[in-house]
Amino acid sequence: MHLFSAMFLLVMLAVMPCEVQNISQSMEVLDLRTYRDLQYVRNTESLMKVVDGKLKVASENPRSLNPKGFQELKDKVTQLLPLLPVLEQYKTDAKMILRLREEVRNLSLVLMAIQEEMGAYDYEELRQRVLLLETRLHSCMQKLGCGKLTGVSNPITVRASGSRFGSWMTDTMIPSSDNRVWSMDGYFKGRRVLEYRTMNDFMKGQNFVQHLLPHPWAGTGHVVYNGSLYYNKYQSNIIIKYHFRSRSVLVQRSLSGAGYNNTFPYSWGGSSDIDLMADENGLWAVYTTIPNAGNIVISRLEPQSLEVLQTWDTGFPKRSAGESFMICGTLYVTNSHLAGAKIYFAYYTNTSSYEYTDIPFHNQYSHISMMDYNPRERVLYTWNNGHQVLYNVTLFQVIKTSGD
Q1: Of 14, 92, 234, 393, which has the fewest CB atoms closer than 10 Å, so is most exposed?
Q2: Which N-terminal residues, if any, form the signal peptide (predicted)?
């Protein structure tokens, strides 16, 4: 077997998963944004017809436009101004479509090259090489998978539903092919969880089933991890693991010393004392205890037993935090839940150190009551004043060597 040809095939196979993932993510973002903007354009269509009619009358008979009529026309045109950034976004999206078309074309060329190369190899030998490549690729992805947060994209509004406070999520387990979406409206004594088959069903509010939890929840710091919902039981520091398929509680355990019932909430209140989350490193609880003087405590949890594996005291006062989320073992904290908020503080569990940051993001609806990272999708899920919103994140990735 020709060594160069074999290396070429392996490189092509290594490139393909990343290319497909990038194209898939770009298309999903494009689909969400197009759906939102199309709805806005449809809503302004009638207003555009009114303005068009008034302009035609004014052009045919300028004297018919008195000061009052001119002011009315000016007001209508002002109402159309928000359409400009939407149309500007369409120009950007058109460029993205051209880029996606080029990437798909390149991918087709890669597939054709692989098809030609495969004809020259013994199938079993090729299969063994692919298995070896998968092992190496997995190791490579482990090294590239994590990084430091450097930026947050503009918000993508997926849907407007529910009350001012709530949470929504997809499964955070890596890897997982589970496409379900869950929604939990409110923060006070709720028990109803809505489960949608896909993100598209969630956007349209269709094809869902209801779970009625045996115990009510407190706050909005819930997380779905490997098919189970982890949440804080109302008026307690007990964490419950509820399995969706069996509709049963698998385990519940007290988070020793953790404050609850608005003892140490985030700045927005809402019984947000205990915030559960997941990242590339597993399951976490963010909370505060009296001995820690109201500062944020991070504990890594064992998903099956909910046993605390390790704990860190960040030294950051929880009541000064708007929300927080974990990425690659680092806790990122916002300085507010209101307009003008930014990611202000980062605590690194791998070194037990912290730094103050200045990472802005657009708080579009001015009241965030839930903000969680999903490591499968590399996005932030937020519940913002009755709107379900996504943010893409940018991570600065450092390739680890075998000596690290």
Answers
A1: 92
A2: 1-20
